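Hi R.,

Here's the chain you asked about this morning:
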Amino acid sequence: MTTNRKLNGAIVPRREVSKCQKNTLFDLWESYYQNVDRAMFEEDLAEKDWILTLSDEEGIIRGFTTMKFYELEIRGKAIRAIFNGSTIIARDYWGEQELVHTWCRFMAELKRNEPEIALYWYLIVSGFRTYMFLPLFFRNFYPNYETATPALEQEIIDTLGEMKFPEEYREGIIRVQDPRECLDPDLAVPTTHKLRNPHIRFFIERNKEYLRGDEMVCLTEFTIENTKRTAHQIAEEILGSLKTAKSITKEVVAS
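And here is the predicted structure, written out as tokens:
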């Protein structure tokens, strides 16, 4: 892993992504995934709202994640969700935390803009490394090996899963009709040591066909209280003033 260089994160509106940048994104994606199709990659990119890019000191993109914004109503309650699609970081930069920093700042800013509306992270997972972002940075997330998914969260998962993948979503899993892009096996299969982690075992057992591209639909709410580690520090920094203001308001009302 590269340790003497850092990545710089940026949020780029999808319409502003240049042809050259698209080529770089695809080349990076193709380096780590099997069954990659350029037309499908372009189609997936076109439906997204933003691209989070990770560039080295020379401005070369070394990683990215695509993002789409959803607004919907569940049980009469307005909710917002950010969907993360294609995500990859060049192997030399694994362990670099700029993806987490940039993404959390983006989410915290969205939450600050509409603090009364629940904001969720909606992601589909075909690899254990992506799934591990959830226990690393969030307290409550679904599905998980310890607790059953609450009814509201399950309804949100089902609604979003069926909305985006009406033909393939079944019981929390996007079951691909034809094998499609998936991580190279040497990256996708966990070692015996990693399988000691109950979160990784849960993912492998729940999404048995992950090697052919099946994806598990996951959900977590982005709040100060629900975040951990770096995510919590950033959420507290950006949203802490809202929490303080709300506390003062309650005290005034109570008096």
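One quick note: The longest strand covers residues 61-74.

Cheers,
M.
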